[in-house]
Amino acid sequence: MNRVCLVGRLTTKPELRYTNSNLPFSRFSIAVNRTFSNSQGQREADFINIVVWRKQAENVCNFLDKGSLVSVEGRIQTGSYDGQDGNRRYTFEVVADSVQFLESRAKTQNREQNTMSDNVSPYDYQNDNSFTNNISVENDPFADFGDNVTITDDFLD
């Protein structure tokens, strides 16, 4: 079975294009946050290429913008081609069956205005209007603990 379900933010505004037979489609990518942090304590993201067809492509282009939060369901499609240097290149994209809009247009525009004025990446912005790199004292379970917390992997042995 070849099924994929992703939640992420658009990295650019999608553009509507047409095939030679006048079939609408759009290609865009989404940034999907990883569930863990790297060795520097930063969250990384994977950038996944998406292609969507027909009416869904028109809707994506009409209602979504850079930074919009979406859910994509579809299948993985792979391919290959020979580059100008003669080396084989491999491609991978998700062919979307469904693209769900996960936030209102007003919320998207509000987030865009906030990120432009604060110079913050839209990928750091969470649904609860907080930033992933700013942890408030109210949400920090160790805020009143006092000393540093040390966690070791010794218990795994």
From TrEMBL:
Pfam short name (any one): SSB
Source organism superkingdom: Bacteria
Biological-process GO terms, alphabetical: DNA replication
GO molecular function, a single term: single-stranded DNA binding
A GO term from the CC aspect: nucleoid
InterPro entries: NA-bd_OB-fold, Primosome_PriB/ssb, ssDNA-bd
PROSITE patterns reported for this sequence: SSB
CDD domains, per the entry: SSB_OBF
Keyword set, alphabetical order: DNA-binding
Stretches of the chain forming a coiled coil according to its record: none
NCBIfam families linked: ssb
Subunit structure: Homotetramer.
PANTHER family: SINGLE-STRANDED DNA-BINDING PROTEIN
Protein name: Single-stranded DNA-binding protein
Organism encoding this protein: Candidatus Fimihabitans intestinipullorum
